[in-house]
Amino acid sequence: MVGRESEQEGLSAFVAAPGGRALVLRGDAGVGKSALLDHVAELATAQQHRVIRAAGVEAESELPFAGLHQFLYPLLTYIDRLDDAHRGVFDVVFGRGGGTPPSVMTLGIAVLDLLALAASQKPLLLVLDDGQWLDTSSTQVCGFVGRRLTGSSVRLVVGLRSEVPSGFDTAALPELPVTTLSEKASEQLLDRHHPGLDPRIRRLVLDEAQGNPLALLELPPYVRGNRTGRTPEELFGYTGIPLPLRLQHVYGARIAALGDAVRAELLRGALDGVGAGTTTVLAGGTRYRMVEADEAAACGLLDIDPLSGDFVFRHPLVRSAVVQKATPNERRAAHAVLAQVHRDDLERRATHLAASTVDPDEEAAATLEAAADSAILRGGALAAVAWLTRAAELSESPEERSRRLGSAAYIAGHSGRLDQARRLVRSGTGSGITDSPASAVTSGYVALFEDGDVRSSQRQVFAAIESMRDSGVREPHEVLTRLVDLLLAINQYASDEAAWERTHELLGPLGDLVPSHSRIYQDAWGDVVRRGAGVRERVERAFADLRDLEPWDITRLGVAAYHVDTLSHYRPHLQRTVDREVETGAVADAMTMLHLIMLDQIGVGEWAEAEHTGQRCLELTTAHGHALFVLHTQAYLGLLAALRGEVERARGLQAAVEAWARPRGVGFLTQITDAIGTTAALAEGDYEAAYLHAIGITPPGTFQPYAHQAPRTLLDLVEAALHTGRTQQARAHALAAQNAGLPDISPRLALTTYGALAITTTDPTEADHMYHRAESHPAAPHFPYELARIRLAHGIRQRHTQGPKAARRFLIQAMESFERLGAPTWTERARAELKASGLTTHTTSAQLAELTWQERRIADLAASGLTNKEIGERMHLSPRTVSSHLYRVFPKLGITSRAALRDALGKIPGDQNV
């Protein structure tokens, strides 16, 4: 610890300070981080802490949760004392049980509870060396935990190499830089360990080491053991080569002098990740134990672990040098041995099999495929792609090679890596994959999500399904299922009646070859009005057993839940999955999950949170080049802006989505643009424009087949029709909803159907009954925007039929709901109605000052008695635009008619009419 006084002082304070905390030691390779970690461990032990050590290993950086296992394995006895929910989380991570892979937050909270329990008897110090090699999943959890240790008796200290990027770089943990030694300290360290050096060699070592402690310790023996006949100056003549690589060369010289058996033993230890300074324990056992390696220890390559007595590498650079010095055949032989050592650990066995096998081997390929399936369920889609690709290379038959490459491409596509998916398909040239149904899955997926090409992707997938049908497929088939699900997704985006009808004709005769989940998608995604009966219950049953659901299953069932308006029940599943998939797994599915979370936030009235989710999704889709998802996200952001009264922004997004989607035939998005137009017009009070947009989605009195927005805009069309004098069309549409059985399909459709019937009937008894059914519906509070609109209409009707007092309760409820939602124009409309009912509201001169110059000018002209046409001629505006401006002005002034304009304008302090 020469020259480390300031670091020692900082570490002493770290251990002695009350409460939990985390600290990162960052420095170059060989600078002394491991020695400082040993020091902090000794300090903690002296103060009666329990110390658990772990080390990141490059060979395991792709294994999900491999690093976290090292910390958690010694605490397994405490896991059994946790509640059922947290035990279930750890069962998934350790592979001891099924269930949905936890998100970073869910697992992080469980780990925090476990550490708190373990530290309740004795303070706990977690020491992580070489954190830059920790797998992504473990890094995220450690970062999450490290930021939340305050108030506990747990400390975490992490050693990182400066020159290697790491997930800890963005973890926002406090850091203690570990720099090179000063000239004086370097001389002290060198003289202490290598006294009596020739002055010329001493100077060369100091100049070469540049204050790096490991170099100061290792270079002198390298010079003394030189048998090449070169001078010390020649030995150090590595101009331009980084010091870590030079040190690897130093270690390589020692390795080359060892016997074959010892080198083979070191290679097996290096490839299995034997730690630097500690023997680490795996969830399924221990790492490879090197034996009969005294020769390597004698020449300074290995140390002895004081606790276990096992050989461990003196430094990670030794591990790297051992691997670098080995020939390809030697490495393959070592991996073969390790595959047998870890025969009971599927993923580790697969990793070593993949590296040990050269010729096609179906057993190895099957093991790799099984490991890929395991990784997907634990949140490791990227590792799964690598294993499936290698499994394809080792497949003995062209059919299996094609199938596995297709699976790798499929998962790569779901992971947001469309380029990689394309490359995998192209790599199958000569094996039949480029002409196979499996290739159609990937090429169709890429065509759809990269550029919204629904037409060509639809043709490809139709042809592939028909080809499999004609080839005589008689059993459920993975590729057929993927093709069916992709076709249903394409059809959803196209929203084309002819394509959907052809799909039903194609899939009907396939019977049980189409899985039950796919049948749910077929009924929910297409035409929920005609095929949605019973879908809600089928979705609930499918979600009941999450154990075997892959990320794309959860996503697709979530989409089905959206179409029947039960998404809130399943949002926790999506939120638990989405963070994990964004970083380490199925990114494309995470994009759809974010869409669904945003839609549910809109539905339940969490509009500010929905904006945040939408912006996050927009950043993610843009970064991954998913053009369809970019525009899809913009469409939802536009709809949200319209709801919030941000009309200009809403129409800008509407125009952008419309211009992209309509030429491509992406009817799903063009329907949303019509919904944006309808919602924005309603917010402005421009009911004529709202009606024209609404009938662009569906004609009144019916629900356009395969138009998903048709039932969703039920209340919009009815209200717009009533306010434009189209009472017959409004009533016909409300009755059509009732006759179509919409209340039985979803709770939201029940609410809006009863509201539409109440608003459009002329029978007071029926109106009261339907208003009561709507407002007392158990799900009504879950849809606050629709409920507030129905209450506003109810209050207006009560004011006209029962008098002002009868109206106030409904109007106050509506106004308060609109205020909470952040819908200012609707709030002002409800406030104006309240004022008309005789109740004093908070309308003040502050609201009057909100008028724009143009709104004020139009209001003044209208107050003077001019018609809309006359105002338009004076201001060079259309009568319709004048009408829109007045509909915005009235709520701001707290009035409902032109007759009240003059009095309202006269309340502005210091007012001088223009």
From TrEMBL:
List the Pfam families.
AAA_16, GerE
Q: At the top level of its lineage, which domain of life is listed?
A: Bacteria
InterPro entries with a match to the protein in the record? AAA_16 (IPR041664), P-loop_NTPase (IPR027417), Sig_transdc_resp-reg_C-effctor (IPR016032), Tscrpt_reg_LuxR_C (IPR000792), WH-like_DNA-bd_sf (IPR036388)
> Which species does the entry assign this protein to?
Streptomyces mirabilis
Record-linked Gene3D superfamilies: P-loop containing nucleotide triphosphate hydrolases, Winged helix-like DNA-binding domain superfamily/Winged helix DNA-binding domain
Q: What is the name listed in the Swiss-Prot or TrEMBL entry for this protein?
A: AAA family ATPase
Entry keywords, A to Z: DNA-binding, Transcription, Transcription regulation
The reply on keyword NADP is no
Q: Pinpoint the HTH luxR-type domain residues.
A: 844-909
Under PANTHER family, the record lists: DNA-BINDING TRANSCRIPTIONAL ACTIVATOR DEVR_DOSR
